[in-house]
Design goal:
Layout (H helix, E strand, L loop, with lengths): L1 E2 L3 E8 L9 E8 L2 E9 L4 H16 L5 H11 L6 E9 L3 E6 L3 E5 L9 E2 L2 E2 L13 E3 L6 E5 L17 H12 L6 E8 L5
Parallel strand pairs: 6-9
Antiparallel strand pairs: 1-2, 2-12, 3-4, 4-5, 5-6, 6-10, 7-8, 7-11, 11-12
Helix pairs in contact: 1-2
Length: 200
């Protein structure tokens, strides 16, 4: 787990059984304006999926402060000769946060103490980054201190329910999600972030 100005996060993942590399990756990148969170799922599994995901992460690392629509388009250009990826991005900034999903990735925001309420869900646009890109529209994300953001590849069952008690470390939440909800048939990764608030 690392702590940034706006957020603290933890990640957990594993490759499909029998594979040495996972095509599902998660990354959190700090920059002067805030933090970029991303989950990237290289199509399929094995080395080619891993290479595609790593190529996308390289693009994000080069300029994490750019608008997320631009980052997805940059990834699309960089991945044209790979098998492609699906991805979810969250741009956290003190003045305005947004998120965007392309393909079958999950994103939820859950407020501790209000778990019975429906979580805020990431709007997903169909497509494959590197192959067929849909029109991109980032959605605004209004957060309160201690809100939990969960991004997951489709290697986790979509009905996952994280334990987001305020005292529970984000790394424990991520580890618990992977253990309880990872599918045996695919790579899997999950990123869990706790928003600390703009004044943190």
């Amino acid at each position: 787990m690392m702590t940034a100005r706006l957020v603290e996060w933890g990640t957990a993942g594993r490759p499909l059984g029998g594979e040495a590399e996972s095509g599902d990756r998660a990354v959190a990148l700090e920059h002067e304006q805030g933090t970029l969170l991303a989950v990237i799922d290289g199509l399929g599994h094995g080395p080619e999926a891993s290479d595609a995901a790593e190529s996308a992460i390289e693009v994000l690392r080069d300029a994490p402060e750019r608008p997320i629509e631009w980052l997805v388009r940059d990834c699309h250009q960089a991945l044209r000769h790979t098998r492609g990826v699906v991805m979810a991005l969250v741009s956290l900034r003190a003045e305005r946060s947004v998120w965007l999903g392309v393909g079958n990735v999950e994103g939820k925001v859950i407020r501790p103490g209000l778990e019975p309420l429906s979580p805020l869900m990431l709007a997903q646009f169909g497509g494959i980054v590197g192959y067929q890109l849909p029109p991109l529209h980032a959605s605004p994300l209004t957060l309160a201190a201690d809100d939990i953001i969960v991004l997951a590849s489709d290697g986790l069952r979509s009905d996952f329910k994280p334990d987001v008690r305020q005292t529970r470390p984000v790394q424990e939440i991520a580890d618990g999600l992977l253990e309880a909800f990872a599918k045996a048939s695919d790579d899997a990764v999950v990123l869990v972030a706790r928003y600390l608030g703009a004044g943190s």
